[in-house]
Amino acid sequence: MDEEESGSGARQRPATIVDVAETARVAIGTVSRYLNGQSVRPANRDQIEAAIQRLNYRKNALAAAMKSDLTNTVGFLVPRLSEFHASVLERLSLALRQQGRALLSYCHNDDAASVMGALEFFSSHRVDALVMDARPEAEERIRATARAGTPIVFYDNNLAGPPVDRVLVDNRGASHRMVSHLLDVGHTRVAVLTGNVQHWTGRERFEGYRQAMLEHGLTINPDYVLDTHWNEDEAYSGMGRLLMLPTPPTALYCCNYNMAMGALRMFAERGVRVPEDISIASFDDVPLFALYGGGITAAAQPTAKIADTIAGTLAARLSGRSALQPPLNIVLNCDIILRGSVKRPRLASEPSPAAQPPTSQL
Amino acid sequence: MDEEESGSGARQRPATIVDVAETARVAIGTVSRYLNGQSVRPANRDQIEAAIQRLNYRKNALAAAMKSDLTNTVGFLVPRLSEFHASVLERLSLALRQQGRALLSYCHNDDAASVMGALEFFSSHRVDALVMDARPEAEERIRATARAGTPIVFYDNNLAGPPVDRVLVDNRGASHRMVSHLLDVGHTRVAVLTGNVQHWTGRERFEGYRQAMLEHGLTINPDYVLDTHWNEDEAYSGMGRLLMLPTPPTALYCCNYNMAMGALRMFAERGVRVPEDISIASFDDVPLFALYGGGITAAAQPTAKIADTIAGTLAARLSGRSALQPPLNIVLNCDIILRGSVKRPRLASEPSPAAQPPTSQL
DNA sequence: TTGTACGCGTTATCAT
DNA sequence: ATGATAACGCGTACAA
User: Fold this and answer.
1) Quick one: CA dihedral B219, B221, B222, B226, positive or negative?
2) Contact B168, B331 (CB under 8 A)
3) d(CA B138, nearest CA chain A) in Å
4) Angle, to 10 degrees, between the axis of helix B42-55 and the axis of helix B28-35?
5) CA B48, CA B60: separation in Å to the nearest integer?
6) What's residue A81's pLDDT?
7) From the CA of B323, how many Å to the nearest CA of chain A?
8) Inter-chain touch A62–B65, beta carbons under 8 Å
């Protein structure tokens, strides 16, 4: 008789807790208590369960959030869903789900207006906490948000000052180890494709390069330092210029995956062989690097660990356990994965190895 | 004097529309009208703007949603954030944002319980619409949701029956074209790594293979058909078995990117050269394929177009314009991108080209 | 343990 | 155009 009708396209009102209470012939309060896991008389419990089933009832998370001042929702803001960020997002989303929380994600595309828009959006939706790459243009807003008591976690990129938690990787150290490896093998002409120096991450990775060079008694050749802004196309053309240099580099260090892609594209175009003609190493590890040629030496960010650490931090802050603790500054290590793309440079006196076919094309 | 105090860690209550009304010395209704873009006396407008600024007020999206029965939120459910899904998500999120809507995303990892959990979550959060890969185990729930008037869009995977919109790609056609290409070049021993036949997508891609084979007068050799479940590791070991066959295939068609990766890994391990020893083509296009060796021939799904089409469909449904229209069934084409991984098979009489070094290692 | 009634921050409906 | 007020669905004191 009272079957839900028609599906005529009109939006139907979902059942409410009142409907459940009426159907089960109990009071609203009783249903609420049942829903929140408190004790209820067994007979009533059965009635309520039956009613929920019958009415296809789902608690209205919005109304609940409004009452409890808790949305169980976390904002996630990144420039884009690169493999790195997507991987962190997927894992973080899983970890938070186990805490009963969900993620609201947003990409800002390195656009300042989008960053501010995202922050507006998040506060409008009353997220309980915020996970984001640090953005200088939003510093004031971030401070205000933190002051208002919303836990914030910076990840990937950093920004000194705001009293927020940080889950970062040792960009400088990993860079340093990577470039040191190139130098230890015998390279002296090591070029670097850097990210935007506006980014802490970009500065740190470059600094690792710089320190390694200096420690090996080398000077920084400005011709070998290209700020190609994390960008594949800029890296591609930048690499083209590097190859035209009278004394081209014998090794290349790319501060991220995209720029490595650009460089590899240029290598392919010019017939430059890795590692015979040039050695290459890159930040970030992606499937491509395991398979390309003899593999590309890379610094792998521990995405799972990053996500889990962020989730743990949020759990602590939101549970109130660590509400008043000073900001955390967690720095995770990257693994340097040695593959076949780095080789001792050949001396000017040595013949080109072009005549010897590689044992495998891969 | 009434400065917001301390930031002691305690959660602060955000300002409400009531606070704004009081500060601006106008009625709540006036503020609401202003916020929703209706006309307000200029003097009042200025007062309200000042108050909003002063109190750092943001509209509570939850309360608004509760009243208007519109959350301006769309659920997005996929198995995982692979490059394909991440790319669609990023673009879709952008397009929806321009409609004033946001995306709530969820990964189900091919786990039936997670799928149901996601659907619960979405209805609890009262999403206005749903975008998902079709999942058979959720059919009843999907029908119920659709019946209740929530627009649903299936994408990537399909499932016949439920009256929902569909934005899919021509999996069968793309497969057919791809395999036909392999056959046209002269291959007859073409192996296929298929996805799970539980998935429509898997069945369609296999069907394209089957049709192409039959049309070329070939029979399907069961030894050459491996269901490696979209999975890299299974593809890796499956490829190992294929290579051990007395008469191994001369060409391989992979129904997705992950399986191609697995196969390439096995090739690298066994020193199998592409395309000298075996030709390979794959569904999905990823950066790797452009760079690997002479490039890998691939079927590229139009992710941007998929996302934009979904966004358009949602806009129409949610605006009520097409509320009563019959379900849409949009099928987009894939581009077949020819690269260097496919080559005429050498005849038994021809010598192995092992002695001729490739012109470039790439 | 259960029932009642109020309030969360909006929007929308009324008079004015 | 504005002001007052009734909902929306839920949680929760408080009384029973």
Assistant:
1) negative
2) yes
3) 15
4) 90
5) 16
6) 96
7) 6
8) yes
DSSP E strands in chain B: the ranges are: 73-78, 102-107, 129-132, 152-155, 165-169, 190-194, 225-227, 251-254, 279-283, 297-300, 329-332, 335-337
Amino acid A155 CA to nucleotide C7 C1' distance, rounded Å: 38
Question: Nearest Cβ partner of B60 from A121, A126, A361?
Answer: A126
Angle formed by the axes of helices A257-270 and A232-244, nearest 10°: 50
Report residues of chain A scoring pLDDT below 50. Answer: 1-8, 355-362
Span B101-153, pLDDT tens digits: 999 999 999 999 999 999 999 999 999 999 999 999 999 999 999 999 999 99
What is the identity of the amino acid at B17?
I
Q: How far is residue A331 CA from its own chain's centroid?
A: 14
Tell me how many degrees the CA angle B109-B115-B117 measures, rounded to the nearest 5: 115
Tokens representing residue B298 in the block: 């691939």
> Is residue B154 within 8 Å of residue B132, measured between CB atoms?
yes
- Do residues B51 and B20 lie in contact, with contact meaning Cβ atoms separated by under 8 Å? yes
List beta partners, residue A26.
none
B262, B232 Cβ separation under 8 angstroms: yes
C1' (C10) to CA (B122) span, angstroms: 22
Contact A156, A85 (CB under 8 A): yes
Domains delineated in chain A: 3-57 (1.10.260.40), 70-168+303-333 (3.40.50.2300), 171-301+337-355 (3.40.50.2300)
The pLDDT assigned to B284 comes to 96
Spatial neighbors of B327 by CB under 8 A, at least 6 apart, are B163, B164, B165, B166
3-state secondary structure of B252: strand
Spanning CA of A150 to C1' of D15, the rounded length in angstroms is 37
Q: Could you tell me if B67 lies within 8 Å of chain A, comparing CB atoms?
A: no
Nucleotides in D strand less than 7 A from protein CB: 1-14
Smallest CA–C1' separation from A68, nucleotide: D11
Please write the tens of the pLDDT for every residue from A44-99.
Answer: 899 999 999 999 999 999 999 999 999 999 999 999 999 999 999 999 999 999 99
Q: Of B90, B125, B147, which is closest to A7 when you measure between CB atoms?
A: B147
- In this predicted model, what pLDDT tens digit does every residue of B330-359 receive, in sequence order? 999 999 999 999 999 987 655 555 544 444
DSSP type of residue B136: G
Query: Between B126, B276, B292, which is nearest A292 by CB?
Result: B292
Tokens (6 digits) for A243: 């190859």
Sign of CA dihedral A66, A69, A72, A78: positive
